[in-house]
C-alpha cells in the first residue's frame, strides 16, 4: 500500500472495492481486486488488452455481478445490481462506443431515460438550464439544439459527459476516451477533466496509453491478467516502471533505428479514389509514393480512409486512379485486382483487423502461416496440400518470430494478441515482399511483443523494402516512420519528416487544419471536424 | 486452455443429446400407455438383431450419408443448403434417364454412368440458387427451399406427361433394363446354406456412400479447394483478404453439395425401386440436415449419425408394425433427436464443458 495510508484515513474513499472476483466460464477476468479511489482525484487504471480493466468497471456500473467482493461508495456498502443503481449511487460512465441517438438533439439525448413528468417540455427546459450552468462551470460547451449526427466525435463525447453530470454523477468513469480523438481534442478533454476534478468530482480513467496516465492522473493502478499489481502516485512513478508493472518484465519503450537510406520509388499512388458500397467517397484523390528502404507512416484518426487505402492496395476492394509497383501499373478493378494478384506483384499485407482479415481463428497456426499463399505450387503435392511440409516450415517460422507457444497445431484463436500478430507478420515478412502494407501492427498487442514487432518492421526496411505503415497511435507513427503523411477525410493533408514535426502539428493536420490558425487551436479543430461530421450526415441521408 | 478436449466435444456431446432424447421419448411412450423398454427392445430387434433388419437400416443410412454429406459440404462454406431434397429428386431424374435410355453392357458401367448423371443433375439443380447467392445475394436458404417445391413440380410433370409408360396408372417411369440392376447385399453376401439380408433393399451403393465419406474428408481437409472452402466458411472478409473468390467458392461448394444429394438417387431409384417413382426421396434430404448437424459436418460424424437415423427409421417401422405405438411417434422421436443434437446443442455442451473444466481445475490443485 502507498506510504500515505495514514493521511487517507482522514477522508473516506469515494469508491472502495474489496476483493472483487469475476470469472467468465474458465477465464478469471478479475481476481481478488481491491482498490481505493479518493474523492477529487483523477485515478488512472492502466493495463494491456484483456487485463480486466473493462470487466472491473462493468461490475462497478452494474453490468456484471461480481462472483465475490464488496463495493463501498463514500464509505457506505452498496449493492449495484444494474446501471440504475449505479446512477443512483452517483456513478456515471462514458463508454468507448457512445450510446447516443444519432437523430436526436443534444438536449433530447441528455434527458433520455431521465425524463420527468408526462410532458417533455418541462424536462427539456430544465435540462437547458442545467446544461447552461454546466457549460459555465466546466467549459463543457455544446450547442443544446444540435443533432448528434452533426457533431464531431469529440463533441459527442462531451454530450456523454454532460449526460452523466445531468444525472448528478460525482464519480465519472471514462473507458479509453481518447481512442477516437485527435490530439487537440484529447488535450481539451483533459482540461475538462481537470476542471471537473477541481470542482470535487472523482474521475476514473481507463486507458492503455502511458502518456495519458503520466499527463493527467493523480494516482494510477496497474492491472495485469485480472489482478491489480500496484497502485502508485503518478508523481512518484515513471513510464518505464509502469510498463514493467504492466508486462511483468523490463521493456524498451523507444525504438532503435538507423537513418533510412531510401532508394527508388517502389510504390507510387496517383489520384486514388474509392467509393464504398453506400455510395460515400472514402478516398478522395490520394497521391503518395513509398521508396525502397523507407517507412512511410500514415497518421490519422481512425475512419478517415486509412482502412480503405489498405484495402485497395491489398486487393480487397476496387478503386479508380493509378497505382504503380516498381514502375508497372497494376489492375485496380478487373480480373487481376484481387489479393492473389497483389501478392504475385510482391505486395504483402498485414491487415488492420487480424481477427477478421489476417487470420482464420479456428485454423491452426500452420494453416494460417500459408493463408493467402496457399496456392503456391511449392506447397502442393499432386492433388493434395503438402501438410507435413507446411507444418515443418511453420515450425521454423514460429521459432524465428518467437511465437509462443511454438506449437503449429494450436488453433490461432488460442494464441495471445501479440502472438497472433507475430504469426501474421511471420507469414508476410518471410515471403520477402517488395512492399509491406502494415495496418495497426500493435493494436491489442502486449507491450513485450510491440518491441519485437517494431524491430522486425525496421529490419525489413533495412533490407531495402518499401513499407507503408498505417496506425492510429501517433507515438508509433513518430517513432517508426521515415516520412509521415497525415490523412483526414479521405485526403492527404500533408507530409512531414518526423524530426521536423511534433504531436501538435500532426494533431492539427489530423483534424484537417493545414494553416496556423489565428484562433485557439481547439476551436479551429472543432470547426473542421464539425464540418466533416455534417458532410457525412448529409451523405447518410 | 479454456475448452474441453475435442474428443469430448465430438463424442460426449452427441451421446448425451441422444440419451436425453431417448429419456424424453421413453416418457412419451409411457404416457400413451406402452412400455418404453419393450419398444426399445423391439426397435433393436427389428433393426439390428437380424441381417434383414440391418439390410434396411443400412439402406436408409446410405440415403442419409449422401444427404448428410450434401449439407455438411455446404456448411463448411457457411451455407445452409436446405435443398438436398430437391437436388436428390432431380438427381433421381438424371439416374432414371441414364438407366432408361443408354444401353449399358454391365451394371458396373451403368453405375458409373448413372452416378455421373445423378451428380450432374443434382449439381445443376443447386447451381441456380448458388449463382443467385453469389451474384445477386439472394439468400441460399430461401432459394433452396423454393427449389424443393419446383423440383417436386418438375418431377411430377416429367413423370406424368413424359416418362410414364403408355397405359400405366401411377406416376412412375418404366422399370429399368436388367443390365442396370445393382447387386443387393442379399446377392452379395448370401451363400446357399446361410441366406443373409433376405428381402432387404441394401445394395452396393452403400459402399459408394462410404467412399463418398472418404472422398469428402480428403477434399475438405487435404486439398487446396477444401482449405479455401473452410476459410471462406469461417470468415468471408479473411477470404477476400487472401484473394479467395467468394463467387467461385459459393458456386463450387454448392455444386459439390448438389452432386452428393443427387447421388442419393442411386440408392433409392437404381438400387431399390429400379424405376423412378414420385416420392423417391421420402424426406431424406431433410434428415440430412439433422445428420450433418449431429455429425458436426465431419464425414465420420455424418456416417455415424446416418447409421443412427437409419436405425430410427427401421426400428420405427418395426414399432408401427408390432405395437399400438403409432408411426407418428417415430417422427416425434426423430424430432427429439434433431432438437437435442441440433437446436439445443449448447444446453448439453455448456454444463458438460463446466464439468470438464472443474475436473481439470481439481486435477491441478
Please tag this protein with its features:
heterodimer; A: alpha/beta; Rossmann fold; 3 domains; six-stranded mixed beta sheet; 35% helix; globular; B: 365 residues; ABC transporter involved in vitamin B12 uptake, BtuC; 15 helices; 0% strand; membrane (chain B)
Helix-strand blueprint:
The complex is a heterodimer of chains A (541) and B (365).
Chain A (H helix, E strand, L loop, with lengths): L4 H4 L6 E10 L2 E11 L4 E6 L5 H8 L7 E6 L2 E2 L5 H6 L2 E4 L11 H6 L8 H19 L14 H14 L4 E5 L7 H16 L3 E6 L2 H7 L2 E6 L2 E7 L5 H9 L17 E11 L5 E11 L2 E6 L6 H8 L6 E6 L2 E2 L9 H6 L2 E4 L3 H5 L6 H4 L11 E2 L2 E2 L1 H14 L16 H13 L5 E5 L7 H16 L3 E5 L3 H7 L2 E6 L2 E6 L6 H8 L10 H20 L1
Chain B lengths: L5 H26 L4 H13 L2 H26 L7 H18 L5 H30 L3 H24 L21 H5 L15 H18 L1 H11 L1 H7 L3 H28 L10 H11 L4 H24 L4 H17 L1 H20 L1
Describe, in plain words, how this protein is organized in 3D.
Chain B: InterPro entries: ABC_transp_permease. Chain B: Keywords: Cell membrane, Membrane, Transmembrane, Transmembrane helix. The complex is a heterodimer of chains A (541) and B (365). By secondary structure, chain A is of the alpha/beta class. Chain A folds into three domains: 243 residues, Rossmann fold, CATH 3.40.50.300; 160 residues, Rossmann fold (3-Layer(aba) Sandwich), CATH 3.40.50; 70 residues, no CATH class. In chain A, 35% of the residues lie in helices and 24% in strands. Chain A has a six-stranded mixed sheet with strand order 6-7-8-3-9-10, sandwiched between helices. A six-stranded mixed sheet of chain A has the order 16-19-20-13-21-22, sandwiched between helices. Chain A has a four-stranded antiparallel sheet with strand order 2-1-4-5, covered by helices on one side. In chain A, β21 and β22 form a beta hairpin. In chain B, α3 packs antiparallel against α11. In chain B, 76% of the residues lie in helices and 0% in strands. Chain B has 365 residues and is mostly helical. At the A-B interface, α11, α12 and β18 of A face α9, α10 and α15 of B.
